[in-house]
């Protein structure tokens, strides 16, 4: 089969690799009909190379049809399914508490990490990912989300990751109708987080330096701002001087406006992989402008929810300010299946309340994935969300 493989920093290529096969009676094989490039994939593309090996198949936002199912699954050939990016058993102590991203059956204990993820480095199990023609799905007796036949792929695809990630991010703020929410970063997760806030009756402020992203968010009732020096004060002025009740950081480790973090990124890229991996695990390599901005902006007693991925172990944080302002923090990999019952009716609603129809800016064949990665990273051609079609010839 054809699959997108990691080959080095800012280098991915489509290669012919062996077809996946069933390894357990709880496995399934799906033919991938749509698979998206996630902002988290750009961390593999740019920064997390020390935890990658040439030839690793990447991607963790797939959906498709079952072509083979193990005897212990409840799937059959032809079932249409979305595959959550977290791999979990559904029955362990963590899964019973809906902490699916901490599944004890798939925790990567040798790396000190939570549940295995599709296509996401040694840190999360080096499981072959979904930017491919076919995908082996472990624990298919629990993970896959069966969906209907009437709607196109893009109405369902984002249940694999970014839509539940955004939903969890907003839920973690514990805000509701009439409250105010700031969303830092209007990439795909930030777009959905902002729209979810509006859908739930909040006043939402969206912050991003990219005009196309701000324009997309504004179409959905979000008040948009650049990430300039005046933004914090402008939003505080709009909230009676206090700041919003909560914030979602949908940016993560590669935020703009973090010169020290950027220098650390470049230093990591110059080291041999074992030394770089050690540096990632012991030093502050994250670019923290968005998170520090959230600390500055949120009102006293407010909540900051972190959906963006961070990779450093000693990133400096303003603890005095955090303590003095009595801030609360929630964060973590998304527990995808916890939120599906809330989200499936919304993506199937003819009114499309979360604007799923207005997110994908580029759909290209899998063969064009290397160019799509470069476009997505550089934010050229108005690129906000890319979906790859592995079956296009």
UniProtKB/TrEMBL annotation:
Cofactor(s) needed: Zn(2+)
Domain annotation Alcohol dehydrogenase-like C-terminal: ranges: 188-254
Domain Alcohol dehydrogenase-like N-terminal, chain residue ranges per copy: 25-144
GO molecular function list: metal ion binding
Alphabetical UniProt keywords: Metal-binding, Zinc
Record-linked Pfam families: ADH_N (PF08240), ADH_zinc_N (PF00107)
Name listed for the protein in its UniProt record: Glutathione-dependent formaldehyde dehydrogenase
Native organism: Corynebacterium heidelbergense
